[in-house]
Amino acid sequence: MSETKLSLKDKRWSLHGMTALVTGGTRGLGHAIVEELAEFGAAVHICARSQEDIDKCLEQWKSKGLNVTGSVCDLLCSDQRKRLMETVGSIFQGKLNILVRFYT
């Protein structure tokens, strides 16, 4: 977690111990939200349709010390949505506090 970010903002906004799922988190507003949530201490999982995009973002966030994981999911496919929820449930031990859904 980036202490710099949290020190710049009121500590009452800490998200330590919280979990978040951001769909479409590799680009644009979704990407920015992932960074904000992670910088405030949340463990974040992202999904997108492209493994290449996910890997690129995860590498960037890892270099910043942010706790972000990711997996491929096309939200139009019910079997992929189900697998996503199983993955998220496993990673976060069944606890999901925040859901941010972007779809393009």
From TrEMBL:
Gene3D superfamilies: NAD(P)-binding Rossmann-like Domain (3.40.50.720). Keywords: NADP, Oxidoreductase. It comes from the Eukaryota. The keyword NADP applies. InterPro entries: NAD(P)-bd_dom_sf (IPR036291), SDR_fam (IPR002347), TR (IPR045000). GO terms for molecular function: oxidoreductase activity. It holds the Pfam family adh_short. Belongs to the short-chain dehydrogenases/reductases (SDR) family. SDR65C subfamily. This is Tropinone reductase. It comes from Phaseolus vulgaris (Kidney bean). The lineage of its organism: Eukaryota, Viridiplantae, Streptophyta, Embryophyta, Tracheophyta.
